[in-house]
Amino acid sequence: MSFSWAKPYEPKHPLMRWIDERLPLPRIVYGAVGGGYPVPRNLNYWWNFGFTAALFLAIQIVTGIVLAMHYTASTEGAFNSVNQLIMRDVNAGWLLRYAHMNGASFFFIAVYIHIFRGLYYGSYKAPRELVWMLGLVIYLLMMATAFMGYVLPWGQMSYWGAQVITGFFSAFPLVGEPIRIWLLGGYAPDQAALTRFFSLHYLLPFVIAAVVILHIWALHIPGSGNPTGVDVKDERDTLPFHPFYTAKDGWFVGLLLLIYAIVTYFAPNYLGHPDNYIPANPLATPAEIVPEWYFWPFYAILRSFTFDFILEAKLWGVLAMFSSILLLFFLPWIDKSPVRSGSYRPVFKRFFWLLVIDVIVLGWAGGGAPTPFRNAVGQISAAYYFLHFLVILPLVSAFETPLPLPRSISESVLHGEAAEAAPIGAKPRPGSAATAVVE
Amino acid sequence: MRFILGFIGAVFAGVLLISLITGLATYFSNPPAPLAAEEFHLQPRHLALASDGPFGKFDNQQLQRGFQVYSEVCSACHSLSLVSFRDLRHIGYSEAEVKKIASDWKTQVPSINPDTGEPATRKALPSDTFPSPFPNEVAARAANNNALPPDLSLITKARHGGAAYVYSLLTGYRDANTYRDEHGKPLPADAKPGANLHFNPWFANLNIAMPPPLTSDGQVTYADGTKPTVDQMAKDIAAFLVWTGEPNLASRRAAGFAVVIFLLIATILGYLAYHQIWDEAKRAVRPTGPLKPENQAKSRRAKAKAGVAG
Fold it and tell me: Pick from A300, A321, A433: which is nearest to A369 by CA?
């Protein structure tokens, strides 16, 4: 329980009282996502994507469990169990399969917006470093789960994707190749690999769910951040999660589900690759091997290293690709600016939007067949990615002069009273409503 | 630590810069020759089908014509291993017709002789899938100059361009010797088809092992009286193969409309509820003058319920 004014749980029904006295689960839920969790009152819509991500995790688990009832994890039967049994013969099997396929994409969309929200508003900063790092663990687990899930239909892209991704390990000298063979259970993806990928694909979502609980637990110690980045001072700054944020999340989730439904029902294969409707063939390499869209930026980083500088280019690519995510774990200590929110950091804000564009460009570079132009663009944007986090961000946080912060959250929401909201001594901007008050 | 990380970042950026410079240097000093397969490869031609768009529905007449093309032409080499004879019920054939189509099918399905246990074949049943005319891959390759005719069940989902690709390919055979692209450029000698290959600019590497399957108008006699031009037959088979790839298309879209309408209503109601809940909270903190008497009691109730300080 984060704040002293958080309402304690008071059972309304004798049954709930009976349960609560024996197992305080209702109390925990009430304190976590109910009226007992005070949340800053000024959250904007970028704060809705955590809840959305959790919803898509639930959708993936539910559809996935039913799909697993009909799926055959064998190299002989996998393709047909998906494309014949599930898509044609199982009642509403096509819906389960398309919902699961596109659910993965929407899970990533929600999580990417959630991550960039965190980057902009400094959600990784003290005291929320562990919230951020647990979030990154969730993201890594998601990537592993999504990759292994993509292998399961045993189409051409499944097979060759597995070949390429497990091939990363063989980039490491000496130990790499034995590790790759050990992971695959053979020299190439085959029955052993498919069965273990299925097993892990079923396991990891539950691990993700467990880390989500830790993520929320760690969040509830300091409480949620907010767009001003200013700490909660008193009760006037917060609203109880329920009914205020359940209502806000509730309608917003409806909006996202609407987009998800339109894609699932009317363009279910839009985000996929046609080659995965060709059964896996170890003897025929597809003309282009591309991962799912959510891996494109990383694929671009991997491919961008084309020159053997001391180390092999492939090893550089693999090291850089892993580093591109691992460096995010160090972010709380890279960005030392005491101001959390990007809204009050004029220089940081510009570089943040440059990063957003950079990652989109990286995605473009990784999503298509390598041409000289695409490679060059990929190399420049990959270089910017590393420079942004490891060079520019520390410098910006050292030299930037942030804008004056509002004194408190509740004052920042009272529009037109900027004079009162600005810190004492801060000069209001000319032309603002506050100028009139001061004069 | 920030210095170490900054150094790592600079190293990655530096190696990327070297990669960029060497890549550009190679590109300019030794520009890659354009590949004929890239230069002459064409994007699929436009094809409009009844099943296109969110409101599209299958045209059963056309699907039946497409099935006729499949059974008289394509099925000589291609299987439909994911589609059962009984599925034809969904495109307008009666149960008796399906039974007859199955038992008359020119390729029988593998079986076991019930008396001797020897491998045998039997007539197809409605529950069987369309069999491959070849007993195995080796036989299929042996009969087709070492090329393997792909199963067609998912072909419109397994190719960029889908049905338009199938249509373009089937009508896209050209004479490699007289072919000129849109700039009037002839095909270079090394891109011309080898033995037993056929030039087709809609095929990825320009030379396809499949001989032109639809060669002349009137190759199939349509039961419904439609004029069987090559173009018409190609359109019909493309439409049929959209259905084999996505037989649930119609019910998927119908369900989609119901879901979208439901979600629209739910989202609008949710939005209104959200506003009702939040408006009270906003009024509770914002000193914008006293509330109207009828709203004061409402606000008090809402605040008490939500636990907001006044």
Answer: A300
Q: How far apart (Å, rounded) are the C-alpha atoms in residues B167 and B171?
A: 6
A224 has catalytic annotation: yes
Contact criterion met (CB < 8 Å) for A265 and B32: no
CA-CA-CA-CA torsion sign (A409, A414, A417, A420): negative
Report pLDDT for B184: 87
Give the chain B residue whose CA is nearest to the CA of A34. Answer: B306
Interchain pair B263, A258: CB under 8 A: yes
Secondary structure element (H or E) that encloses residue A38, with its range: strand A38-40
Spatial separation of the C-alpha atoms in residues A239 and A7, rounded to whole Å: 11
Task: Show the DSSP H helices in A121-175 as ranges.
Answer: 129-151, 156-167
> Helix or strand or coil: residue A291?
coil
Asked if residue A56 lies in contact with residue A63, where contact means CB atoms within 8 angstroms, the answer is: no
Mean pLDDT of chain B: 90
**DSSP assignment, residue A392?**
I
Q: What are the structure tokens assigned to A183, written together?
A: 């992971």
Tell me how close the Cα of A153 comes to any Cα of chain B, in angstroms: 14
Gyration radius of chain A's alpha carbons = 24
**Predicted local distance difference test score (pLDDT) of residue A431:** 45
pLDDT digits (tens, 9 = 90+) for A186-219: 999 999 999 999 999 999 999 999 999 999 999 9
> Which residues on chain B are in Cβ contact (under 8 Å) with A333?
1-2
Residue whose entry in the numeric block shows the structure tokens 């774990």: A329
Could you give the angle at which helices A156-167 and A176-184 cross, rounded to 10 degrees?
150
User: Cβ of B307 and A35 within 8 Å?
Assistant: yes
Residue type, A4: S
What global pTM score does this model have? 0.91
Report CA-CA distances (Å) from A414 to A410, B245, B270, B302.
Answer: 7, 58, 26, 20
Question: Where does the pLDDT of residue A416 fall: very low under 50, low under 70, confident under 90, or very high at 90 and above?
Answer: very low
Q: Per the CB < 8 Å rule, is A83 touching B5? A: no
Taking the C-alpha atoms of residue A422 and residue A412, their distance in angstroms, rounded to an integer, is: 9
Cβ separation of B2 and A94 shorter than 8 Å? no
Best of B5, B282, B286 to disrupt the A interface by mutation (most A CBs within 10 Å)? B5
List Cβ neighbours of A96 (8 Å cut-off, separation of 6 or more).
A63, A66, A67, A86, A90
Question: Which of A 223-262 lie inside 8 A of B, CB atoms?
Answer: 235-236, 239-240, 243-244, 247-248, 250-251, 254-255, 257-258, 261-262
Range from A372-376, B1-5, B248-252 carrying the lowest mean pLDDT = B1-5
A306 to chain B, closest Cα gap in Å: 5
CATH 1.10.287.980 domain range(s) in chain A: 290-403
Cβ neighbours for B216, distance < 8 A, ≥ 6 positions apart: B230
Is the pLDDT assigned to residue A251 strictly greater than 80? yes
A421 pLDDT above the threshold of 80: no
Is the separation of the CB atoms in A115 and A49 below 8 Å?
no
Alpha-carbon Rg for chain B, nearest whole angstrom, is: 31
Catalytic residue among A123, A224, A341, A381: A224
- A84, A301, A361: best to mutate for the B interface, most B CBs within 10 A: A84
DSSP designation for A391: I
Mean pLDDT of A80-98: 96
Chain A nearest CA to B27, separation (Å):
7
E strand spans, chain B:
80-84, 109-112, 119-122, 129-130, 198-199, 207-208
Residue carrying structure tokens 């049943």: B125
For domain A290-403, say whether CATH 1.10.287.980 is its number: yes
